[in-house]
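Recall the central idea of this unit: under ordinary conditions, the amino acid sequence of a chain determines the structure it adopts. In this exercise we apply that idea directly, starting from the sequence alone.
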Amino acid sequence: LCHGLMCGADNILQKNRLASKKIKMNYENYEKNIVEVYAVAINGWTYEKSVCNPGKIGRREHLIKLLDALVKGECSWVVLSDDE
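Accordingly, the structure predicted from this sequence is:
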């Protein structure tokens, strides 16, 4: 899961020329260090709490739901508009 999330972030950042190098995911400060800096966000996060390290999601069914959403493309990285 973590690797898949990071690959998605790197792909969208490179594709849209928002970063020249790979970034390190910062779950603790996701809003400040990822969303605000790069203007990208995870859309479709299935866990009821805010975006966090999947390793901190304790229940198996929550992880399976998140993995399914990632595989199906229901959870993915998006570039934010200027208004967002």
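The chain has three helices and two strands.
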